[in-house]
Amino acid sequence: MTSYLFIILGAVLVNNVVFIRILGLCPFMGVSKKLETALGMGAATTFVLTMACGASFVIDRWLLIPNQLEYLRTLSFIVTIAAIVQLTELVIQKTSPVLHQVLGIYLPLITTNCAVLGIPLLNVSLRHNFLESLLFGFGSAMGFTLALILFAGLRERMEAADVPAHFRGTAIAMVTAGLMSLAFMGFAGLDKFR
Amino acid sequence: MNNSPYFLQPASVQSVMLRVLLALIPGIAVYVWFFGAAILVQIALASVTALLAEAAMLKLRGKPVMMFLADGSALVTAWLIALTFPPIAPWWLTVVGVLAAIVIAKHLYGGLGQNPFNPAMVAFALMIVAYPSLMSQWPAVGFTEFLPQWQAIFGPRQLDAITMATPLDALRTALHTADARATVAGVLGSSASFGNIGGKGWEWVAAGYCVGGIYLLQQRIITWHMPAAFLATLFVISGGFALYDPTRFVGPSFHLFTGGAMLGAFFIVTDPVSGCTTPRGKLIFAAGIGLLTWIIRTFGAYPDGIAFAVLLMNIAAPLIDMNTQPPVFGHKRKAGGRP
Amino acid sequence: MNVVQKLFGFHGGVKPNYNKEASTRLPIAAAPAPTRLVIPLHQSIGGPPRPLVKAGDRVLKGQRIGDADGDVSSAVHASTSGTVIGVEMRLMPHTSGLSAMCVVIEPDGRDEWVERKPFDFRAATPTATRDYLRDAGVVGLGGAVFPSHLKLNAGKQGRLDTLVLNGAECEPFITCDDVLMRERADPLLRGAAIMREMLEASRVLVGIEDNKPEAIAALEAAAKRANDASIQIVAVPTRYPAGGAKQLIRALTGIEVPHGERSTDYGVQCFNVGTAYAIYEAIELGQPLISRIVTVAGNVGQARNYQVLFGTSMRDLVALCSPLPDTDRIIMGGPMMGFRMPSDDVPVVKATNCVLVGSQKLFPPPPPEMPCIRCGECAKVCPADLQPFEMYWFARARIFGKAQEYHLFDCIECGCCAYVCPSRIPLVDYYRFAKSEIWAREVEKEAADEARDRYEFRLLREEREKQEKAAKLAAKTAAGREKAAAALAEAEKPARTPEEEAKHALIAAALERAKAQKDQVHPENTGNLTPEQQAEIAAIEARRAEIREQAKPHLRQDD
Amino acid sequence: MLDALLVMALGAIVLGAALGYAAVRFRVEGDPLVEKIDAILPQTQCGQCGFPGCKPYAQAIAKGEAEINQCPPGGEEGIHKLADLLGREFKPLSAEHGVEKPKAVALIDEQTCIGCTLCIQACPVDAIVGAAKQMHTVIADQCTGCELCLPPCPVNCITMEPIPESVENWKWKYPVVKIVPASKVAA
Q1: ipTM
Q2: First-to-last C-alpha distance (Å) of chain B
Q3: Which CATH class is domain D32-97?
Q4: Which of A115, A143, B52, C330 could form a disulfide with C341 if both were Cys (CB 3.0 to 4.6 A apart)?
């Protein structure tokens, strides 16, 4: 039981997908200007990533490995993810057109969000079982969402700051992301403690 | 000509900053008494670097240099960096730390009042991640001889005789990496340098900071919320775990009087710019720092957790503020929430 | 009567230096009628009154010269008898330095009243009484000049619990309410009794800051004389802004009236003591509001309170108090919330409770503004429980939506935050700026919404006309075929009737004339253009032509 | 090899079927976004953006066919709002579509007007009243300042008058931050 908790905690804090693994930076920079969008993106990614981890585990374990098709792993994972993203997009477009417009290009880009492909691949290399895969995917996505929300909160305040002209916008956002990453390094070692 | 109000209370940022510096003096005095004058060299070094960096940045940004230089905020940052860095750290470590604080953490965000992160803590975290061993060499108690300390700062460095790890670091290393039978009591009893409460010498330095903190409280520069919430959280959580398993978890007195706890409680956590500002937010913010400090100190990879804890809570501060807005006049019956 | 009133207090507040002694040493004096009165028509919240007089008219003292425009407005009267020498734009007592319509009267020195008769409000319907007060020009004299008749309405509940009279007068220097309460306590309480009856309030609480013991004593004595057990005089602790209506209501009753809601819905209504006196004058003496007590204080030899006719120039008023030579500005109101006047030659109006004479020494210019360090001092003193530094943070960056999320409009602009700010930021100026920008935007938004409705209606109408025309055409062709044979016989007739012929000639002639004029007349906004601008206009024209081309099918329906 | 093809084909069929069903199930009708964009536009209906009215421009933005910086009456403020709503980057007002001008209303010189009704037909918000051969006048409150009535007027009797500042519409200015030269403070 505790090991499951550690998987989630480790994925959220210690090996935060954005700050420590440095994955998924594109949407992290792109849709963190407002808290509402960040929440929407976080929710969408959480859904996609958890589904992708589950589906990829099933495909890997019962389709690829029995047929010695491990070399198709990346390809088949991508296809699966793309389908899940497409589904999510359709749902969002129906339920929240504004969120759909605001997420814009980043929504289909979840497909190419390296976090979404990276976490299922990590699941394979870490030899997680089905439940662990799901939890790891969910935890990582929560870590992504956490990073996105915290960042959005900061950016909403920084929007009004007197940042020097050359650093306004993305530049200062990158600096901030770096400093946030620095802060998250403080969690280093927590997951190794038993 | 200005508009109303035409009356202003005599108060200034400058006087606030000067009183903060004044409040640091008791702690520094005790520091010098136990660990030698190296800390004064570091403070001077940090101050000069900070003022130069501040002036250069103000100039670059086209702001009136003297006016902003005189506000004293750069000096407060510099002193805090000097006090959190090892006093025998090489000079360039301090200089780079101060530059990172003033240039990156402060002026890239627009200078005084606009930085989302505590500049001094950015410097500490950056340096401890980059140079973990240099940041872990502290002077041994009572070794106050000036020349070796001077050489440690400006070279040539011959450190073995005078350095040791901080009590916090020593305890953590012993519990983490030594054999599984190590216990808190065993480690603390193994060396006289652990002192009575929280490390020989260090406990008195902490007391000095505490005196300065009480002065700040009395001057109404800080409110009780943050120090109280921070110290209480640290006390309760460390006390609780020490009761649960005294062999693996050290008690609250050690946590409160070692490392940066007291300095942090009154001078770092209370930084208004990067912290929370609502009454409830302040409590949550400081309690969060207390909790994270204990977690990182107990389970983490770095000797002291305050810098990381402060930075982590800095990140969360805007969100905490947003969700703890006090009810506005006439809206009190409704629950507080996002404004 | 001597029941100890429980006090509730309010959050925040400051204790500036009060400076009230100088102007209370001498009793109220009547300011002499000046040689010229400039009476602005718009002296209250609401619509600007319509002028009833024109140059050359003779007016009597108390004669209505401006009629309330709708119910949310208030009438204006001549302050003395004389001749109207103009209805024109004059400099207003407003920070903007802009002008507005004023009635300029040359007094004849006879001070001849119109016929005055008391108004029997008990015999009249509440609506009639309110109309009477509107036409008597009675407005709130605390400084907000909200028409009083609108507030004398018990609201949803039909009756009120408490009528609060505001005699707190918390602003430094101002003592006009203080001396009014000392010298005219009896009529003041009679005005209060009238208001209580109109509002059917069960009790009257008069809140006075405890630094005015004489006023408290005078009102207590008057209350005893009036033998009215429902009137209670309550001393409230001296703390600025205890005289803010909401703060006083909170201090006296514990009720917090939210921004944008009527206090009557909470069973309370609040009036300034000066307003109570004005209502007494209007109802019992039949006198409209033509003068008020004004404190002249600050950088003067002898500060004092004067009964001043509206329209008197502040310059004349200040001259009575021997201003000191280093005087550099005139402020209307107190030092915390008052407004700097564009000149000293602006008239005293209903909102003028104090004419504060300033100098560099008395009100030194603030030191340079430093950045906000979020120390939270402003939040500690804010009587509206706001987070002033957050509002400032976003107002400064012109992110108005965020400023509004932090309840910008709950701000009462009391100035406490700026008073304590260690960075000496003119916080209130930022709020005023943000508020007026937001208001302007709201007006624009409303205009845009109206324009959209009108545009959509126009499209709808065009569509309808097109259909009608099509239907008519169809009917015509059907009828036309039947008539075709008959028409054939008359085919020799000219294509155009003589009338049509004439019309065409007329249009042609007009166009000809227009063409000629076009060469001569250059519209101002297209003259003297730089080549860049001309090129730009040409480009815009080209685009517009394109659109017209696209929209042609649309337009043709109309032809 | 055949296995691989089979697996991929199977995946494609299954996923394709799922998506096809979802596309039918979650079909979107209407476009609420256009309304939101239209609400930001100033409704002058002036056509400077290159579209015949504010609504068509809003539709074009929603479809991604138009930039957000083509509306001079909306000004920088409007562009910021659109950028916020749509999560796009702010762009300065496109010069080819015109410049931001102070708000003005049309005024008909009643001496010159010949009563041709051409301006009435041009006015998108019906803010001009009058009849054939009668003198026309502009209802200033309803005029959006679009200038569309200027070109059709055969006698050029319409001018744009900026709205004057009055005590009612006066705005508090941005507080002036006094930057004291360094030398002065040092002295």
Answers
A1: 0.86
A2: 34
A3: mainly alpha
A4: C330
